[in-house]
Amino acid sequence: MASTEIYRYLHTTHVQVPLDAEGYLINLGDWSPDVARMMAAEEGIELSDEHWEVIRVLRDFYARFEQAPAMRPLVKAVTKALGEEKGRSIHLMHLFPGSPAKRGARIAGLPKPTHCL
Protein backbone atom coordinates (compact mmCIF):
# COMPACT_ATOMS: atom_id res chain seq x y z
CA MET A 1 0.00 0.00 0.00
CA ALA A 2 1.34 3.41 -0.89
CA SER A 3 2.30 5.78 1.87
CA THR A 4 0.09 8.82 2.24
CA GLU A 5 3.10 11.01 2.95
CA ILE A 6 3.71 13.46 0.12
CA TYR A 7 7.24 13.35 -1.24
CA ARG A 8 6.93 15.77 -4.14
CA TYR A 9 4.48 17.44 -6.45
CA LEU A 10 3.87 17.29 -10.16
CA HIS A 11 3.12 20.86 -11.19
CA THR A 12 0.43 21.12 -13.84
CA THR A 13 -0.88 24.32 -15.34
CA HIS A 14 -3.54 24.76 -12.68
CA VAL A 15 -2.70 22.49 -9.75
CA GLN A 16 -0.02 20.69 -7.81
CA VAL A 17 -0.49 16.92 -7.89
CA PRO A 18 1.02 15.07 -4.89
CA LEU A 19 3.23 12.07 -5.69
CA ASP A 20 4.73 9.37 -3.48
CA ALA A 21 8.46 8.60 -3.22
CA GLU A 22 8.37 6.53 -6.44
CA GLY A 23 6.42 9.12 -8.42
CA TYR A 24 3.00 7.46 -8.32
CA LEU A 25 -0.12 9.51 -7.64
CA ILE A 26 -1.15 9.63 -4.01
CA ASN A 27 -4.75 10.39 -4.97
CA LEU A 28 -5.79 8.35 -8.02
CA GLY A 29 -8.57 10.87 -8.67
CA ASP A 30 -5.91 13.47 -9.55
CA TRP A 31 -5.22 11.68 -12.84
CA SER A 32 -6.11 13.35 -16.12
CA PRO A 33 -4.73 13.16 -19.65
CA ASP A 34 -2.70 16.32 -18.90
CA VAL A 35 -1.22 14.69 -15.79
CA ALA A 36 -0.39 11.60 -17.88
CA ARG A 37 1.41 13.75 -20.46
CA MET A 38 3.45 15.46 -17.75
CA MET A 39 4.34 12.16 -16.05
CA ALA A 40 5.35 10.71 -19.41
CA ALA A 41 7.47 13.77 -20.19
CA GLU A 42 9.30 13.28 -16.88
CA GLU A 43 10.23 9.83 -18.17
CA GLY A 44 11.25 11.10 -21.59
CA ILE A 45 8.18 9.64 -23.30
CA GLU A 46 6.01 11.55 -25.74
CA LEU A 47 2.61 9.88 -25.72
CA SER A 48 1.41 8.60 -29.10
CA ASP A 49 -1.90 6.96 -30.01
CA GLU A 50 -0.30 3.58 -29.25
CA HIS A 51 0.61 4.74 -25.74
CA TRP A 52 -2.95 5.92 -25.16
CA GLU A 53 -4.30 2.52 -26.28
CA VAL A 54 -2.20 0.79 -23.62
CA ILE A 55 -3.09 3.42 -21.02
CA ARG A 56 -6.78 2.71 -21.68
CA VAL A 57 -6.15 -1.03 -21.28
CA LEU A 58 -4.32 -0.37 -17.99
CA ARG A 59 -7.11 1.81 -16.66
CA ASP A 60 -9.78 -0.71 -17.74
CA PHE A 61 -7.82 -3.51 -16.04
CA TYR A 62 -7.66 -1.48 -12.84
CA ALA A 63 -11.39 -0.70 -13.00
CA ARG A 64 -12.18 -4.42 -13.32
CA PHE A 65 -9.66 -5.93 -10.89
CA GLU A 66 -8.79 -3.02 -8.54
CA GLN A 67 -5.06 -3.50 -9.09
CA ALA A 68 -2.54 -2.54 -11.72
CA PRO A 69 -1.34 -5.53 -13.76
CA ALA A 70 2.17 -6.92 -13.49
CA MET A 71 3.90 -7.67 -16.80
CA ARG A 72 2.29 -11.03 -17.61
CA PRO A 73 -1.30 -9.92 -16.99
CA LEU A 74 -0.52 -6.69 -18.89
CA VAL A 75 0.64 -8.64 -21.94
CA LYS A 76 -2.50 -10.79 -21.81
CA ALA A 77 -4.80 -7.79 -21.37
CA VAL A 78 -3.19 -5.85 -24.23
CA THR A 79 -3.24 -8.91 -26.48
CA LYS A 80 -6.93 -9.46 -25.77
CA ALA A 81 -7.86 -5.81 -26.26
CA LEU A 82 -5.53 -4.74 -29.08
CA GLY A 83 -4.30 -7.91 -30.76
CA GLU A 84 -1.30 -10.17 -30.62
CA GLU A 85 1.13 -7.78 -32.31
CA LYS A 86 0.52 -4.97 -29.80
CA GLY A 87 0.48 -7.40 -26.89
CA ARG A 88 4.06 -8.55 -27.43
CA SER A 89 6.50 -7.76 -24.65
CA ILE A 90 8.93 -6.17 -27.11
CA HIS A 91 6.24 -3.75 -28.33
CA LEU A 92 5.36 -2.78 -24.76
CA MET A 93 9.06 -2.33 -23.94
CA HIS A 94 9.37 0.01 -26.91
CA LEU A 95 6.46 2.12 -25.64
CA PHE A 96 7.38 2.05 -21.94
CA PRO A 97 11.12 1.23 -21.72
CA GLY A 98 12.52 -0.54 -18.68
CA SER A 99 9.38 -1.85 -17.04
CA PRO A 100 6.21 -1.43 -19.10
CA ALA A 101 3.99 -2.52 -16.21
CA LYS A 102 5.48 0.00 -13.75
CA ARG A 103 5.95 2.89 -16.16
CA GLY A 104 2.61 2.33 -17.83
CA ALA A 105 0.78 2.13 -14.48
CA ARG A 106 2.45 5.32 -13.25
CA ILE A 107 1.54 7.26 -16.38
CA ALA A 108 -1.98 5.79 -16.34
CA GLY A 109 -2.42 7.15 -12.81
CA LEU A 110 -2.52 3.73 -11.14
CA PRO A 111 -0.70 2.35 -8.11
CA LYS A 112 2.54 0.43 -8.59
CA PRO A 113 1.80 -3.16 -9.66
CA THR A 114 2.12 -5.43 -6.62
CA HIS A 115 4.43 -8.00 -8.18
CA CYS A 116 6.92 -5.60 -9.78
CA LEU A 117 10.26 -4.85 -8.19
Q: How does this model look, in words?
A:
The protein has helices at residues 33-42, 49-65, 71-82, 89-95, 100-107, and strands at 8-11, 16-19. By secondary structure, the protein is mainly α. The chain has two domains: 8-42, Dissimilatory Siroheme-sulfite Reductase, Chain: A, domain 1 (2-Layer Sandwich), CATH 3.30.1420; 49-107, Arc Repressor Mutant, subunit A (Orthogonal Bundle), CATH 1.10.10.370. A two-stranded antiparallel sheet has the order 1-2. The model has no long low-confidence stretch (mean pLDDT 90).
Topology of this protein?
Blueprint: E1 8-11, E2 16-19, H1 33-42, H2 49-65, H3 71-82, H4 89-95, H5 100-107
Helix pairs in contact: 2-3
- SS-based class: mainly alpha
What is the overall number of helices? 5
CATH architecture of the largest domain: Orthogonal Bundle
* Count of domains: 2
What portion of the residues fall into strands of 2 or more residues? 5-15%
Estimated helix fraction: 40-55%
**Rg:** 13 Å
> Total number of β-strand segments?
2
Mean pLDDT: 90
In the CATH scheme, the class of the largest domain would be Mainly Alpha
Low-confidence stretches: none
CATH superfamily of the largest domain: DsrC protein, C-terminal domain
Side-by-side strand order of the widest sheet: 1-2
